[in-house]
Amino acid sequence: MKVSYNWLKEYLDLDVAPRELSEKIARTSVDINDVYSLGDGLKKIVVGEVTSCEPHPNSDHLNVCQVNVGEDKPLQIVCGAPNVAAGEKVIVALNGARIADNQKIKRGKIRGVESNGMLCALQEIGFSDKIAPKESSAGLYLLPDDAQPGESAISYLGLDDTIIDTDVTPNRGDMLSIYGNVNDIAAFYDLKPHFKELAVKENDDQSAADLVTASIKDQKIAPTYKLRVIKNVKVADSPLWLQIRLWNSGIRPINNVVDVTNYVLLKYGQPLHSYDYDRLPGHDFGVRHAEEGEKFVTLDDNEQTLKAQDILVTADDQPVALAGTMGGQGTAVEDDTKTVALEAAIFDPVMVRKQARRLDLHSESSMRFERGINPSTVETALNEAAELIAELAGGTVAKGIVTGSEKPAKDKDINLSLSKVNHVLGTDLKMADVTDVFDRLNFAYQVQSEDGIVVTAPARRWDIELSADLYEEIARIYGYDKLPATLPVMTRNRGGLTARQKFIRASRHDFEGMGLNQALSYSLTTVEKAKQFQISPVDEPMKLDFPMSSDHVATRMSIVSGLLIDVAYNIAHNVNNVALYEEGRVFIPKGGERPEEQEHIAGAVTGQLLANNWHVADHPVDFFQVKGMVEQYLKNMGLADQVTYVADQSRAEMHPGRTANIMLGDQLVGFVGQVHPKTAQAYKIPETYVFELNIESLLSAKKIGNEYTPVSKFPTITRDIALLVDTSVTNADVVALIKQRGGAFLKDVHLFDVYSGNHLPAGKKSLAYTLTYQDDHDTLKEDQVNAAFDKVTKYLTSQLGAEVR
Question: Is 411 assigned to a binding site?
Fold first, then answer.
């Protein structure tokens, strides 16, 4: 909220500078976004009176004006504004003045005629289009007749006021009003506020109940709903003091009726809405839920399609406003309005928030309804607004208030223990110190004993519900800086990681050691991407009821799609070698209210893993490199069950000939392979290889304990063997048989050559292996190695039909 320092000073005897006050507010109440003045940087800008206005001799749209600025002689200024005329009071930037954007005004000639300054529109002295009155948008802002030539326009327009822009948290909705700010500032400076309320004078003979009625069937959506009627109004521009209040608070002045409702909103935090009585479809007001698909045209001239959870204000059951959000186009107060129906209400904050967010119609009113309304000032605000409209628009206030619903303002009694206060805050406060805080806050209380006190939190502080809330009030008013600084008390238990944490940390360490960089992607994605790259397919992901955007509507069931988005980002920025991994949670729907959260780890690699140099040529990453990473990782994790890789064609987004499921025993724990070229094209990435593993399955699997084995000091002996086998025989088949029959001294089996093609029979291929033998305790003898090697040869020939070449 933009809080006017001058407005605060009307109700408080402040003797602190605005910036000092803002620092105190930030330390004690709410955060501060900015402290500024609309007049910052402006210089030599005064009130002027146009004494004559003649057409420019060399232009068909310029005028030569003589302007009285309080000096001996009028200034001659050339002006092109369409509304400049003799007798008007205007804003004048003198020679040497500084206006918006630090632009300097200089004396000069415009089409041969001397000009000694500039006549200014509000935008030219720093007003944004959002707060400048609409009628001044096409020309000069015309000042009231009481403006004195030569007087500083900066002061006259209230631009010398300092604005404290507060960032109000959701629980402190009371700070979205001058009333709330005055009470809070008075408390921490120990001041007595002299807040002024304007009493209403009902000066019309007719009763409001004869003009309007109100019946609220569902009081949950509108706990409080009140109406007043003001007759015989004359809609016009607001007086300057009211316009200043509004534009200094960031609100555009409209007319005297609408401006009063905005003024009261700022003063009390109570949104009001004014209807043109004669344009209403009826005069029986109500509040109801919208019909599904019901149409309604709002004040911004947009047709809204409503849902059943939206709430409407109606007249004879015809919608006239989106409750708490925005009024309707057909019933707005216009220049010819004669009678005003004035509404003050409290609407359900959750419904208002959902409605405003879905329709993107956030406003000053909806912001306050969402955070809560002070029930004790609803009628006060309604009465003051009615009286101000009567004063400024010359109307008469009909007798009485029409009430459709009313939720009484209830104070809350909270028991407080002095010893508990001191224990929580770490202080040594006396009961007098605590009661002094509540006196400053203007909270009623009763001291029950030396340790007990019952505090009555007023309805205007609806955020206070528990004793813990009062602890906070005591701390902030007493002063956070006065609280003793102590180190936290803690046990001296030795810290450490759990087995799960160690496993996850080791997983990250392994893949980082293999050259992959850690990435973090969103847990929310589109429904289409959420279905892709699943280890165990699930039909539909968990969807959000109120997503932030169309790209974040469902929870992910795989990490790979997020990594591919990261790969695409790097490729788009000319980073062609990308190797990423991510460890995080996926969310698998299991039919319950919440999805099952699983820890997964995934990787995506494209380009080259190793940089080429003078003796190593370019070698793009392939399936076997990525599969090798997964193999090494699973080996490092010490899994007891056998890991196998089974060709898979079930995933449409993966290449059908270069994808394998990863099996741990009989359990599917992940997959590895190439992204399908069509999927890669959709993600705008080149050839990319990915993998994903379910860490939950790996965590629960049997492990092999780590044992230290000293490096043998005895030499190794190697034997090479080349086999001619059927093309259906895999390397895994050969290696498994060699290890099974290789004997106790076999240490390693290495495939060093594969050949198929010319000079080999059809359906055959050649595989060449090096077998390494070593005894850990003695030097191997030739006979021992030969016997073991012959045994391997025998079984390869008999069981696999291999032919030794």
Answer: no
Q: Which helix (H) or strand (E) holds 727?
A: none
CA distance 636 to 297: 65
Q: CA nearest 180: which of 119, 105, 241, 269?
A: 269
In this structure, the chain runs to a length of 805
Query: What SS3 state is found at 700?
Result: helix
Give the three-state DSSP class for 562.
Answer: helix
Has 696 been labeled as part of a binding site? no
Q: What is the DSSP letter of 328?
A: B
pLDDT for the residue 630: 96
Q: Are residues 531 and 680 in the same domain?
A: yes
DSSP for 476-497, please give it: HHH-GGGS---PPP---PPP--
Tokens read off for 691: 């993998």
Instruction: Identify the pLDDT of residue 198.
Output: 93
- Judge whether 490 lies within some domain: no
Nearest residue to 692 (alpha-carbon basis) of 789, 563, 791: 563
Helix (H) or strand (E) holding 339: none
Q: Is position 790 annotated in a ligand binding site?
A: no
Low-confidence ranges of the chain (pLDDT < 50): none
Which residue in 370, 375, 377, 446 sits closest to 414, CA to CA?
446
198 is a domain residue: no
Do 23 and 70 have their domain in common? no
Q: Are 621 and 656 in contact (CB under 8 A)?
A: no
State pLDDT tens for residues 24-71: 999 999 999 999 998 989 999 999 999 999 999 999 899 999 999 999
In 683-794 the beta strands, taken as DSSP E runs, fall at 688-694, 717-726, 746-755, 764-773
Query: 522 is written with which tokens?
Result: 């969103």
Residue 298 covered by a domain: yes
Name the pTM for this structure: 0.68
Question: Which of 405, 432, 463 is the endpoint of a domain?
Answer: 405
The domain total for the chain is: 6
Q: Provide the CATH number for the domain around residue 32.
A: 3.30.56.10
Helices and strands per DSSP (H, E), number in the chain: 20, 38
> What's the pLDDT at 134?
83
Cβ atoms < 10 Å from Cβ of 28: 18
Per-residue pLDDT of 649-688, as tens digits, reads 999 999 999 999 999 999 999 999 999 999 999 999 999 9
**Among 231, 134, 205, 164, which Cα is nearest to 20's?**
164
Task: Report which of 458, 451, 460, 465 is spatially closest to residue 422, judged by C-alpha positions.
Answer: 451
CB 142 within 8 Å of CB 90:
yes
- Which pLDDT score, from 0 to 100, does residue 594 have? 87
Angle of helix 418-425 versus helix 431-441 axis, rounded to 10: 90
C-alpha closest to that of 372 among 296, 488, 462: 462
Q: For position 706, what pLDDT does the model report? A: 75
316 among annotated binding-site residues: no
Domain range for 27: 2-37+162-189
In a domain, 705, yes or no: no
Q: Specify the DSSP element, H or E, that contains 378.
A: helix 378-393
Q: Indicate if 212 and 273 belong to the same structural domain.
A: yes
Residue 685 shares a structural domain with residue 758: no
Q: How far apart are CA 805 and CA 797, in angstroms?
A: 11
- Specify the CATH number for the domain of residue 588: 3.30.930.10
Give the E-state strand segments of 572-716 in sequence order: 578-588, 596-606, 643-647, 654-664, 667-675, 688-694
DSSP states along 208-263: GGGT-EE--S-TTT-SEEEEEEEES----PPPHHHHHHHHHTT-----HHHHHHHH
CB 183 within 8 A of CB 457: no
Rounded CA separation 684/571 (Å): 8
User: Chain-centre distance of CA 741, in angstroms?
Assistant: 64
The CATH number given to whatever domain includes residue 798 is 3.30.70.380
Q: Residue 727 — φ and ψ, nearest 5°?
A: -65, -20
Query: What are the structure tokens assigned to 79, written together?
Result: 């002006």
Residue 722 forms beta bridges with which residues?
768
Do 97 and 43 meet the contact criterion of CB atoms below 8 Å apart? yes
